[in-house]
Amino acid sequence: MADFFILVILYMVTFSATAYIFLMGDTDYHRNGVVGKTRAAIVQVGMWIFNHIFPQSLQDSFINTIDRVLYTRNCYLQIIYLLLLLFITVTYTVSIQPHVEENDLPPAYSIGVYATLTINWILFLATSFSDPGEITEDNQQAYNEVYAFDGLMYVDGNMCRTCGFVKPARSKHCAFCDRCVHRFDHHCSWVNNCIGGSNVHLFLMLLITIALGSVYGTFVTAMVFVTMVRSRGIMEASYVGADGRLYPVTRLIAFQHMFMEYPGMVFLMTCLSLLSILVGGFAAYHMYLAITNQTTNERYKTAITNPQSDHQRQSDSTLKWSKRTSGYFQRRSKSDRTREEKETHWRGYSKGMFRNLIEIFFPFDVNNSKKR
């Protein structure tokens, strides 16, 4: 009996660890550590298996499909997301809602679930069809006045070869949408749209509602689960063991019994709990970007702009000695290192947490050319 519960726990831990490795393994923080090396090893093994086992025709078909779904602008992932939302809505309505009414649980439980799903539908559609801050020849000058060029990551006079005008600071030409975007963050295939200065607040709220909705859905499902166990007196019952003797029901036995009798409920609760961890981490990362006034694009470009690796920077923070002069080693002074860091390290556009959040949730309006 305990083996069943252990398998469920192992599944949840494996899913969470795998998701974390693949999502975070390529970041600056983990790239040279255990997580990054584990991700690289898994990818290499997977590529070796893919290249040596599957026939070339299947490889070409798979690669073409991935390229089309992930690297061209299309609505495939939008459809998948909407189907997932529909699946969650139907599963809750069929498997959970009847038990909420049957066990006289507060109506606020279901009201909260359906309200969260409705808000998520609205935010998803709003993010999908919103203007991320498209830069054109007509509004290029207005966007050019929003942010100053820092001279390091963003240099005045940098032309967009496709659009034919000077790119404003913090903008980027999106290869998927074929347009320059103000305060470009990234292109999100799930919403089939760029995430930029004009809609990043919608994207952030979408992530937050998914994370909070998953947590709340897990809570409601768990409450229904516990109420059903208590109302049926399962914990006061006994079961026949392998030796033919009666034993009192434990939590593990009760969980297995409910899984066998109500698989939809337990499956939904497990999936929502995993989704809350996965999306919660992603939402926390983007919230960190918001309060520090950074973009995903800038986080990746920082590693290129800063010539020193993480390991090298750590070495500089400890005893680092210059070349031998006059028969002994001279340590670089603190002022020298500080000056070098100012010259090579990107300092960003942060104005303080409060002002950064104001900038995110009340974005620049291109119809009003005043600088925020």
Brief overview, please?
60% of the residues lie in helices and 8% in strands.
Characterize the structure shown:
With 372 residues, this protein is mainly alpha-helical. The chain contains 13 helices and nine strands. It starts with a helix and ends in an 11-residue tail after the last helix. Helix 8 (251-261) packs across helix 9 (263-291). The strands form four sheets. It has a three-stranded antiparallel β-sheet with strand order 1-3-2, with no helix packed on it. Helices cover 60% and strands 8% of the residues. Residues 307-344 have low confidence and may be disordered. It has helices at 2-24, 34-53, 56-71, 76-102, 107-128, 140-144, 200-231, 251-261, 263-291, 296-305, 310-317, 334-344, 353-361; strands at 134-135, 172-174, 179-181, 186-188, 193-195, 238-240, 246-248, 321-325, 328-331. Strand 8 and strand 9 form a beta hairpin. The radius of gyration is 27 Å and the shape is globular.
Task: Write a concise keyword list for the protein shown above.
three-stranded antiparallel β-sheet; 372 residues; two-stranded antiparallel ribbon; single chain
List the helices and strands and how they pair.
Layout: H1 2-24, H2 34-53, H3 56-71, H4 76-102, H5 107-128, E1 134-135, H6 140-144, E2 172-174, E3 179-181, E4 186-188, E5 193-195, H7 200-231, E6 238-240, E7 246-248, H8 251-261, H9 263-291, H10 296-305, H11 310-317, E8 321-325, E9 328-331, H12 334-344, H13 353-361
Antiparallel strand pairs: 1-3, 2-3, 4-5, 6-7, 8-9
Helix pairs in contact: 1-9, 4-5, 5-7, 7-9, 8-9
